[in-house]
Structure formats: structure tokens, C-alpha cells
Amino acid sequence: MIGFRIIDLETIDSTNLELRRLFLAHKVGHGTVLMAKTQTQGRGRLNRQWQSAAGNLFASLLIEPPDHLKDLSSLNAFAAGIIRKSLLEIIDDTQAITIKWPNDVLLYGRKVAGILAESLLNARSAKPAVIVGIGINIDHSPQQTLYPATSINDHLNDKTTREVVLESLLRAWDRDYHRWCENTETTLQEVWLPYMEGKGQMRRVNRGNTAIEGRVVDFYADGTAVLQPDHGDSIVIRVGDVS
């Protein structure tokens, strides 16, 4: 059992930023969950704005994973798989929820959740620490986005709440977190890999000062993807490589 500590705020600039501040001030540790009803500066990957209407879930989880799990690709994949498992407790349709690499969870083909994992320097113990920011559309979904979005309650007769969704999420995380730490690829083969979408997507990645474009052709059970450029050999890409 992780033993989550939940901090619930009315409004904040960003749950990731506030949890980072508390961590650097030595006020929180492993298992802390910080959530807010609204955010004024919610962020997604590549610093994109995350629209933060009240009624949706905006939460950040602080974890201190083992040293061998510093890579964010595996953690990002685990988080996406756990979000999928948790939403299956609410949306009783095993075909409805899929995962789009690198960090989106889809409901009936539309984005319902996103992940922003960020590494921290843990000066207290020199262990890696990571903040996993999670946004889940419950009551509202943004319009005019790069990828079509939806919300959970668009598909329910008996509406759910952010509290119910968070409880389901933490329960699923707690069940599988230690298994992921000890048997990472086996866990991802169960909770993440079978539900992946995105083969055939065009992606641009940064390698040093060079940008490479290609098509995603496969996924590995460590959270990485395989990119096939128009010319040359395929390359393995991680979440942080994608631009």
C-alpha cells in the first residue's frame, strides 16, 4: 500500500507547479496527491495550455520510483495504462478506452485524459522523484483542439464526479505500482501495450541539434516507440524526444 496523502485546493496556477514547490520546500513526499477544482495555468506536453474547467479532474501525484525507473517513457506508459484500468470501473466497455502514444487516453476514439510527467531533483535523498500530472475530462471537454476530445459524462446516464474518478485512479495505481517497479515490462505488457493506438502516425523527434521525421511503426514494452524515417534505419524514441 502506498498510503496516499491528498491535498485538495480550490484553485491553483498548476497542480504540477504547486506540488513541485511543496516538494522543494520539503513539505511533501512519496504518495502525495495534489488536486484542484480549477487551474489558471494548466499545462500539457510541450507546454501546451490545458483547459481547466471546474468539474474535471486536475491532479498531480508525487512518486519516488526505484533508481532503475528514472526513464519517463516507462512511467508515462504505466500512468496511461492505470488511467485506462481505472476508467473501466466507470465506463463498462472494454473496447471503449485506448491509449495514443505518447501520453493520451482515448474514450471512443476521442481524448479524455492526458499525462505530464516531470522529473525532480530530490536533494534530500538523491533518489529520483517524479511528478505525474493527470488531467481527466469528466464534465467538460475542450473544443477546437489538435485532437478531438470528449468527457466521461458525455457517455454516462448516471453522472460521475472527480472524487469518484480519483478514488478509482488511486485504487488502480496502488494495486499495480509495486508490480510495475519489480516487473516493469511484464506489467506494461498487460496494462499498456495491448491497448495502444498510433501506428502510422507521423512524428518529429529531436536528436541533439537534428530534427528527424518519420512514421511510428511499433511500440516496445518499456514505453518507447519505433520510428521509421523516410530514409535510413528505424530508431527507438522516448517520450522526451518528441517535439
> How many β-strand runs?
12
Topology as H/E string?
A: EHEEHEEEEHHEEEEE
Residue ranges: pLDDT <50 for 5 or more in a row?
none
Task: For the record, give the distance between the C-alpha atoms at the N and C termini, rounded to a whole number.
Answer: 36 Å
Strand arrangement within the widest β-sheet reads 1-2-3-7-6-5-4-8
β-sheet strand percentage: 25-35%
Name the shape in a single word.
globular
Average of per-residue pLDDT values: 88
How many distinct helices? 4
Helical content stands at 10-25%
Rg from alpha-carbon coordinates: 17 Å
Backbone structural class: alpha+beta
Main sheet: strands, sense, barrel: 8 strands, mixed
SSE topology:
Layout: E1 5-12, H1 15-24, E2 32-39, E3 57-63, H2 72-88, E4 97-100, E5 104-107, E6 110-121, E7 128-136, H3 162-182, H4 184-191, E8 196-197, E9 202-207, E10 210-219, E11 225-229, E12 235-237
Parallel strand pairs: 1-2, 4-8
Antiparallel strand pairs: 2-3, 3-7, 4-5, 5-6, 6-7, 9-10, 10-11, 11-12
Q: How would you explain this protein's 3D organization?
A:
- The protein is an alpha+beta fold.
- It has helices at residues 15-24, 72-88, 162-182, 184-191, and strands at 5-12, 32-39, 57-63, 97-100, 104-107, 110-121, 128-136, 196-197, 202-207, 210-219, 225-229, 235-237.
- It has an eight-stranded mixed beta sheet, sandwiched between helices.
- Helix 2 crosses helix 3 (162-182), helix 2 packs across helix 4 and helix 3 (162-182) packs across helix 4.
- The longest helix is centred in the C-terminal third of the chain and has 21 residues, at 162-182.
